Amino acid sequence: MQIKIRSGGHDYDGLSYLSDVPFVIIDLNNLRSITVDVQNETAWIQSGATIGEVYYNVAAKSRTLGFPAGVCPTVGVGGHFSGGGYGTLLRSYGLAADQVIDARIVNVDGKVLDKDSMGEDLFWAIRGGSGASFGVVLSWKVKLVPVPPTVTVFTIAKTLQQGATELVHKWQDLAYNLPKELFIRVIFDVVNANDNGDKTVQAAFNSIYLGSVENLVSLMNARFPELGLESKDCTEMSWVQSTLYFNGFPVNGPLEILLDRTQAKRFYKAKSDYVKVPIPTVGLEGIWKRLLEEDQPVVIFSPYGGKMSEISESATPFPHREGNLYKIQYLAYWEGLEETEKQLSWIRKLYRYMAPFVSKNPRQAYLNYRDVDIGQSKNGTATYLQGKVWGGKYFKNNYDSLVHVKTKVDPENFFRNEQSIPSVANA
Ligand code: FDA
């Protein structure tokens, strides 16, 4: 039987709760205590907590501490931290996994180990290398990060008719080179162009700045005047309120909304890419053309640079560091099961179209945006070479080190799934 480990259940392709072989689920849903130590700026967080619960509990103790994890509050800590975990503080502080300073894991012998007893290489592997290949992570000790009492947010949306293409073209290497306190992502969707039912692509520049409106507006006027940012477009708020803002919740509403663990239920498929060289205008126009063929497409460009460029590719298994201008996430949403094939075919076609514009050899992908299209093995029984098909994309050269750790700590491949790290003990 396969052992499935589930914390928040947000795996994009359901590897924590689906398989075509018999399996049992170890569900950490109820293991979710969070202990915040303000004096030492650390927290112990159990894997079944959500990141919304983390933000809520940190904010309840301090207005000037935050944590650099994902945007959606219902995401579970177990999968998120063990796969990387990024959000709006990415350029200032890197990933959630970069802040982990201790952890407790149940290994294949049923022993509970901490950082010292699990050893450096296993501790390295679970911070971005997919915890589920190595054991059941029970809890994580993390460093919290300083945030100013007031941050500034804005969203400016431009359609193609309003010059979105030129702005996005400039944004590509600009956002990467901005001061690390400024994070501007771009979210693309399809909207009405006019009252006649014509459609257009809209690019929403969605941003947080760890500083005041005044400083932000002068920085933007110097570096990105084409966007035309003015003070009236900006709102100052606490960092925890910004977590509401990025989810479209009312920022003056109760923070308890971060504790709601209900996951939206809808059909979707996602994929990811990394961009190292700005995409030419003609390439961007090809994306717009494909988005306009679709009912509910969403594409998100998230800038890297800043702290992400300061961390070496092998510091953790997550290798997508310096030189990656931004990450792309493609998403297709749909309403009924009968539309599935059509939607999958659309997103795969878009992914094929993007090949010349994105990272190559390997074509990199983000583990937490799980995508079984890039390779999988039935029942997690891949060989080293089979596993490299997806492992090389998620982990680049760190794949070999992950195989080494796996072979040492779980030679019989007890912990496995369709994209797990193989053991080469019997090869
Ligand atoms: P789930 O429980 O499904 O686990 C995911 C994987 O981790 C599975 O392989 C599972 O076996 C393994 N695992 C889980 N708990 C484990 C444990 N305790 N020990 C060992 N292995 C364990 N990502 C991001 O970086 N930034 C973002 O802003 C978002 N936003 C976002 C929004 C929404 C709506 C979704 C659905 C997903 C995201 N993600 C994201 C992706 C998210 O980070 C990714 O899906 C995480 O793996 C989810 O972790 P869960 O614990 O919720 O998932």
UniProtKB/TrEMBL annotation:
Its cofactor is FAD. Residues 1-147 form the FAD-binding PCMH-type domain. It holds the Pfam family FAD_binding_4. One of its GO terms (molecular function) is oxidoreductase activity. Signal peptide: none annotated. InterPro entries: BBE (IPR012951), FAD-bd_PCMH (IPR016166), FAD-bd_PCMH-like_sf (IPR036318), FAD-bd_PCMH_sub1 (IPR016167), FAD-bd_PCMH_sub2 (IPR016169), Oxid_FAD_bind_N (IPR006094). Keywords: FAD, Flavoprotein, Glycoprotein, Signal. PANTHER family: OS08G0158400 PROTEIN. Belongs to the oxygen-dependent FAD-linked oxidoreductase family. This is FAD-binding PCMH-type domain-containing protein.
